[in-house]
Amino acid sequence: MQSLKERFNSIISLQDLEKFKVEIIGKKGGLTLAFAELRNLEGEERQKQAKTLNEIKQEFEKLFESKKQELQILELAKKLQDEKIDVSLFTQSYGGKEHYVHLMIEKIVDYFVALNFELCEGGLVEDDFHNFEALNISKFHPARDMQDTFYTRDEKLLRTHTSPVQIHTMQKKSPPLRIIAPGAVFRRDYDLTHSPMFHQVEGLVVDSEGRVSFSNLKFILEDFLRYIFGDITVRFRSSFFPFTEPSAEVDISCVFCKGEGCRVCSHTGWLEVLGCGMVNQAVFDAVGYKNVSGYAFGLGVERFAMLYYGINDLRSFFEADLRVIGQ
Fold first, then answer.
1. Which of 37, 132, 248, 292 could form a disulfide with 137, with the two C-beta atoms 3.0–4.6 Å apart?
2. What global pTM score does this model have?
3. CB atoms within 10 A of CB 304
4. Tally of domains in the chain
């Protein structure tokens, strides 16, 4: 046993350790051959020799693992020392640059703030009432399947849209209201055009009954979309959202092919960019508003940024690749 320990103490590298392991317990190792010789012994002598060999093997394996851990720590320390760099010696510098998503949020918010919209923000964690129930999305409403999200054990959830900001604001303030709500939202999607975390900007306008109409909504969205994308055609398609009625999807003529039809727009000449509508009375009932009317709209910031900056994979926004940010 003593000679085995001395042999281990003399080993200074993982490579030598592996060679020693093969030498002792490999297919043709000394201990392996000694076990094979047991077949030539009989009775008590065989049992005695087998016991001795097993004790040696157990001691070897114990010493081997201990030595292996020791050498791995030493090797890592040496690697860290060899690869150590002095960051103060770097002469190349990178200029600061804002992320595409933040640039787009600022561009959108600037437009609406200039129209006297109030900038409102809320928490990322919400309860079921503010994220779903108050927005006319009941417990078993099919819209919940489209907004499958992340729940915690205390019945809280990561918000699936920035609409809860609208609910909180309406609970705290009386109309008239004119707010814009940007922020991060969460849904269980991940592919070329979807991410588990993305950003939305939603707007809400509420005033006395009859003072806010769909015509107001249509005018402001057409002007906003031309502010972002320039000379485009805008169209409204009838749609359904639980929190607005009537509701519409808004399309713009493809910014890449100018409406001629290409791969990006699936050869339709149109790109869907946001949803909107007149606020459903059920939402006003949930917050205690009476005799009011209003409109709301919502858009995905990454969608706008992909179109505006010509980025074809949404996941590029979250990979921290300097080549993308520095284009």
1. 132
2. 0.65
3. 23
4. 2
